[in-house]
């Protein structure tokens, strides 16, 4: 039985590989893909998503989501309170980016749907006869908006498997992971919704590094998607290293792990049910994910946190999905 999922992406390089896995693994019924700002402004993430759909011959519909966070932009000063990591820049006169603004792929012929993502999400969930798993791998803005507009959708959501947060690992600031930092208020709304939520954190994704060897295995699948995924991975490794964001020449395929967890939970080797919260203050810890391990922490809490993953299992599943049909 295929898992019925709705993806929320900010396509980006690892989002692109996650889309490939979601569509080529034959494990999922992808009800739709919502695209928001995040790794790049919405115009770029949207076109990158449409380009990937055509590269893989995807039939999923694409919906335009939010162009910015709920309220974070209203308080720009809070971005000055800490050291923000950049994932793009100009080095030796050339643009270097972990998430390219424009994928080097043909202009897409297809377009996004006219219905805004949040409206489509609410309508799809309200009318869904079977449970749906939401798989957000970018900012949580659109899901938070939908929950605020129509709280009843909680009953149709089987689980949220979200790439976001980091307990002992951060990447955007010393305390925060990018997706949570981009919209901390949205992350808090989702975590407090009462919906079973599994956070595929940086703790888990940074325990399963991909390197040039894995890029070679992915390229050997022989498909166009495999070749492009290998190029994306190599660019991630090189760009993060050149920008000083990563000392080792390895990369985590964060979003791929989130999608894989839905169909193959064994790919995550350590998951803990933990009460947690996101800092929505405007200081050094803004966007940080913090756990509460006191004995009094509510046992009913619906949040599970992934801490470790199996890179070899991830790579095998990805190879199987991308091998030339
Ligand atoms: O921190 C990693 C997350 O931020 C991934 O989803 C990546 O695509 C970026 O959006
Ligand atoms: Ca992403």
From TrEMBL:
Gene Ontology molecular function, alphabetical: hydrolase activity
One Pfam assignment: IU_nuc_hydro
Keyword terms, alphabetized: Glycosidase, Hydrolase
Signal peptide: none
All residue ranges annotated as the Inosine/uridine-preferring nucleoside hydrolase domain in the record: 5-314
Xref: PANTHER family: INOSINE-URIDINE PREFERRING NUCLEOSIDE HYDROLASE, URIDINE NUCLEOSIDASE
Name of the featured protein: Nucleoside hydrolase
Biological classification of the source: Bacteria, Bacillati, Bacillota, Clostridia, Lachnospirales
